[in-house]
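Input record (one chain):
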Amino acid sequence: MATTKQKRTARMTPVKPGSRRRAAIEKRPRAITLITGGTGFLGSHLVRQLVAGGTRDIRVMATSIPDWLVDLGVEPFAGSITKSEDVKRAVEGIKEIYHLAGKVSRERDDAREMYAVHVEGTRLLCDAAREAGTKTIVLASTSGTIAVTEKGDVIPDETFPPPLDIISRWPYYASKTYQEMAALERFNGKGLRLVIMNPSLLLGPGDDRLSSTKVILDFMARKIGAVPGGGLSFVDARDAAGAFQTAMKKGRHGERYLLGAANWTFTKFFGRLERLTKIAAPKLALPSKLMIAGSQVVDALFKQWNFASPVEPGAIEMAQHFWYVNCNKATREIGFKPRDPGETLHDTVSYLRENFLGGNAFRK
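The corresponding structure, as predicted from the sequence alone:
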């Protein structure tokens, strides 16, 4: 993770002539592509892929700027998506935007902040982009605004009616649903194109904030005591980043694209992790209502005692649902072809082992 010393403000501190950072700044072309949230899990893969492909006219907006971003030679912009002046300056001269800025949390206490970032921030961005002459926005949403069911008897595609009765239970997914609505309303009209991307759970290497891969880290740390009754879908963050680039070129205005590589029950998911890590998967399978109620009691007690809770009731409740996706539309229209899910799990485990478990996860 980036340390405080590694972070930079939008106005770069002076550096000695001849340094690599000075050279990168001097060679940087004028930005026409903006990436918000470009230092997050998905964003960092997207930025690196674009640069590796020869694209350098990029401005990356984030709340803080790590050294690795500056060293790539792109234009860093430290600012908040919720501040109007920051957003207006960020979109100056920009023709296309990848809007990835967001906050991932299962805590109800974070509902207000998630709404501010996802909904109010998106409104600010869309309005500023229109005024600046931006033509295209590719928005990062989540499959959870469409593809979640209680029984797993269907695999939703983009035509599936939004399950608002389920989504409304969790502030994160509710705020992302409102985000999509806000974007469709604010960035619409002649010559404008808004494409909404709905990836499932992002896995793969590089999740230094554990925004998506914590479930695997918890498995490796033996913190999961029972098998949830639901199922999940996941996709490699590297493949999702590639799909975003294609969507910028080929995605249709107002359309959503679900991205997923595997639809597995948690029993199968943990079984694959067991074979990969040599760590025994949990065998206990409790009734869904009992698991949810028990986690709520434990969480409430620990909070009453002012201790950090060992459980996340929201995550446990979510894991009783089925998050399966049908990504045929993405395959057909933007050529989405995810890698083998086994490769994604292997690379995720390797990254977590080396960066969070000291390389000893398989030897315990």
